[in-house]
Amino acid sequence: MGGTEYSNVTTDRQVGPIDLEFFRNVQNIDVEPEAQEKGDILDGLIVGLDMLVRFCGTKKYRKRMFLITDGEKETKYV
Questions:
Q1: What's CA 70's distance to the chain center, in Å?
Q2: Residue whose C-alpha is closest to residue 39's, from 78, 69, 15, 1
Q3: How far apart are the C-alpha atoms of 66 and 26, rounded to whole Å?
Q4: Minimal CA–CA distance to 63: which of 53, 77, 73?
Q5: What are the tens digits of pLDDT across the range 41-65?
Q6: Residue 22: other Cβ atoms inside 10 A
Q7: Among residues 72, 67, 77, 78, which one has the least CA distance to residue 9?
Q8: How far is CA 21 from CA 1, 15, 40, in A?
Q9: Percentage helix, strand, coil, to 5, in the chain?
Q10: What is the tens place of the pLDDT at every residue in 67-76?
């Protein structure tokens, strides 16, 4: 997404089917301590939705997005 609005969000892979490699990547996620305080769940959702829309375009894919979180941090939204 250009700009710096979502500079605290990183993506690990492109949009595509879930495979065994995906689960290996999820198990090996290691978050840097300073990044834990800066990220926000809604920023991640926005980036994920943007990636999904750019990948699918107007094609009639069955679109699903999975949010994986530890649920430890508060969001700045109510």
A1: 13
A2: 69
A3: 12
A4: 53
A5: 788 888 889 998 898 888 888 888 8
A6: 14
A7: 67
A8: 25, 13, 25
A9: 35, 0, 65
A10: 777 777 776 6
